[in-house]
UniProtKB/TrEMBL annotation:
This is Transcriptional regulator GlxA family with amidase domain. SUPFAM superfamilies: Class I glutamine amidotransferase-like (SSF52317), Homeodomain-like (SSF46689). The lineage of its organism: Bacteria, Bacillati, Actinomycetota, Actinomycetes, Kitasatosporales. Residues 227-325 form the HTH araC/xylS-type domain. It comes from Streptomyces griseomycini. CDD domains: GATase1_AraC_1. Residues 326-369 are annotated as: Disordered. PANTHER family: ARAC-FAMILY TRANSCRIPTIONAL REGULATOR, HTH-TYPE TRANSCRIPTIONAL REGULATOR RV1931C. Keywords: DNA-binding, Transcription, Transcription regulation. GO terms for molecular function: DNA-binding transcription factor activity; sequence-specific DNA binding. The keyword Kinase does not apply.
């Protein structure tokens, strides 16, 4: 399965501010280093700059300037286009974005590219009209400006990222990493995304609906107290665990355990446990030929009907459709081509996707599992 090409937009003309440098480095880290033992081929990454960013100039801020070999014309033909950020004056002072950038983004989208923004990159997608009528997010410090400037956009300032199928947006900083790993999960499956996250020493999966605002006001004497019990839960997902069991193992009251887990992860204990079970089921569907009934048992979801219910609700497709999308022997032509679009601008087609980006066939009914 070929995940295709990723074009990353570089908009700064003189130097890259330290704040924006982080967002720029995220897609370079996730998509730019080949991982042949996880997936071969890997993504084809290119950095595409505006005319200004390709000129020579003295660096400011961090003392680092970025010069690119590719220009904005190279956005057209890419399978995925990512705008990590836009210059601060374009957000804070309303300075117009380069018209050549807006035109290139529209052309890339019309050619079938999957469009992605990290943090303030949402302002570029909004200016191009690609967020009109869509739900979108950005760093919470800038969402009010985004909503005021682009009233046609349904801005959600409370989530880490939003997946609208062929247009995706994320909050700032680490949320951009969550979104990029989400893209790998969409394209190459949960196993590849989990292994990549492990190499990067980051959480394998934070759902996009998780809150941007995570209360970290946990007493320092209790730091790490949840780690052992959560690790234990992951190792025993095939057992009928309850939240009461986890609270008891953590030597906490149910109310205290609920409060501290939600403060640490941004989600409820019940949803956290369900996310872990679904993640285990995804890995088993991708990496084994076990019957769906056995997958449900080993992931702790009990029955095939229960697994099917949660898969359709959370993933957007049935377990059997998910398995076909990520065959163990990756053929050249999958019945569900998850690499977003085939290479090349001409003839590429959009792929309809379910609630979490998994592909579905328009008008088709899900087969029985």
């Amino acid at each position: 399965m070929n995940p295709g090409s990723v074009a990353v937009v570089v908009t700064e003309d003189i130097g890259v501010p330290s704040w924006d440098l982080y967002e720029l480095s995220i897609p370079c880290t996730v998509f730019g280093k080949p991982q042949p033992d996880l997936a071969d081929p890997w993504y084809d990454l290119r950095l595409c700059g505006t005319r200004e960013s390709r000129r020579d100039g003295s660096a400011t801020g961090t003392g680092l300037s970025v010069r690119t070999r590719h220009g904005l014309d190279d956005l057209v033909g890419a399978d995925t286009v990512i705008v990590p950020s836009v210059p601060d004056p374009c957000v804070d002072e309303g300075r117009p974005l380069p018209q050549e950038l807006i035109t290139a983004l529209r052309r890339a989208y019309d050619a079938g590219a999957r469009m992605v923004s990290l943090c303030t990159g949402a302002f570029a997608l909004a200016e191009a009209g690609l967020l009109d009528g869509r739900r979108a997010t950005a760093h919470w410090m800038h969402t009010a400006q985004l909503a005021e400037r682009y009233p046609k956009v349904r801005v959600d300032d409370s989530v880490l990222y939003v997946d609208e199928g062929d247009v995706l947006t994320s909050a700032g900083l680490t949320a951009g990493l969550d979104l990029c790993l989400h893209l790998v999960r969409r394209d190459l499956g949960a196993h590849v995304a989990n292994q990549l996250a492990r190499r990067m020493v980051v959480p394998a999966h934070r759902p996009g609906g998780q809150a941007q605002f995570i209360d970290l006001a946990v007493p320092t004497t209790d730091d790490g107290s949840l780690g052992p019990v959560l690790d234990w839960a992951r190792a025993h997902l095939d057992q009928p665990l309850t939240i009461e069991d986890l609270a008891r193992r953590a030597a906490m009251s149910l109310r205290t355990f609920h409060r501290r887990l939600q403060a640490a992860t941004g989600t409820t204990p019940l949803q956290w446990l369900l996310n872990q079970r679904l993640g285990r089921a995804q890995s088993l569907l991708e990496s084994t030929d076990l019957p769906v009934e056995k997958v449900a048992e080993l992931s702790g979801l009990g029955t095939a009907n229960n697994l099917r219910h949660h898969f359709l609700k959370q993933i957007g497709v049935s377990p059997s459709s998910y398995r076909r999308a990520f065959p163990r022997t990756m053929p050249e032509a999958s019945p569900y081509p998850l690499g977003s679009r085939s290479r090349g601008g001409a003839g590429r087609r959009r792929v309809d996707r379910g609630a979490s980006g998994a592909p579905v066939t328009p008008g088709a009914t899900e087969p029985d599992d």
